[in-house]
Specification:
globular; MetI-like fold; 296 residues
Amino acid sequence: MSANTAPAALPRHRSINRGSAIGLLLVALPVFLLAWLIIFPIFSAVVGTIFVRSPDGAREFSLASYRFFFTDGYSLANLWVTLWTTAVCGVLLVAIGLPIALYLRFSQGRLAAYVQGLAIFPMFVPSIILAYALIRTIGPNGTVDLLLNAVGLPKLRTPYLTPWGPVIGLVWDNLPLTVLMLTAGLSSVSNSAIEAARDVGARPLRVFVSIILPRMGNSLLVTASFAVLGIFSAFTLPYVLGPASPEMMGPFMQRTFADMNDPLNAMTQAVITFCFCLVFGIFYIRSIARNREARP
């Protein structure tokens, strides 16, 4: 009997090996591009900031650029305003996006479709256009100022060129992705579980805390990770809407590299920025791994 089954098993084994080889070839190019465009520049930047060329051209170990960054008041102020902006934007995105996602998940009809369209609309607006639209709206002598002046009210204290300018722009720019990801996370909440809780007398707040929120842990973590990664490294909106000092890390790196012609310190700032983003990237990867392990 084994003699009869062995010839049949051999072609199947060959087909499995052929399929595995094709699969490896399909992922080879993306992996190569990932290594070439992301991993290698990161490794090169880290090595380039630690092993610095001496005046005679030799490479020597030095942490002088990192010591300068963490002892320079201006650099630390820029890092602090970046962390503050990221934290405030993250809280505002969840506070604004979660109610919208809840409404879209449990509402039907034309109004829900309009709300969804308005929430996703900023995704199709380029950041530079959004920045100048905000300047013309809430900037000095903008639309809001003209309307207030028309009805005899005092001028608006504009957030333009203050730390709150990038916050408004970044929240508006990242809101569509936040709403989409939270809405996708709410799809795991079954209507039957909510109806059962209501049948036993649970109020809306209790339903949210006991049923909806526990099922959204991974979605909230992934949403926060994406928001932090996008906001921490943002350039256009902080550059156009933010103050000249202190400034976020994106404009700070560009100015250090281009205006001050200091590639070593600019690369050091990039490595430090990457290290902060790496923490949230690890959270995202762990969340994805847990979701895969939880699948049957």
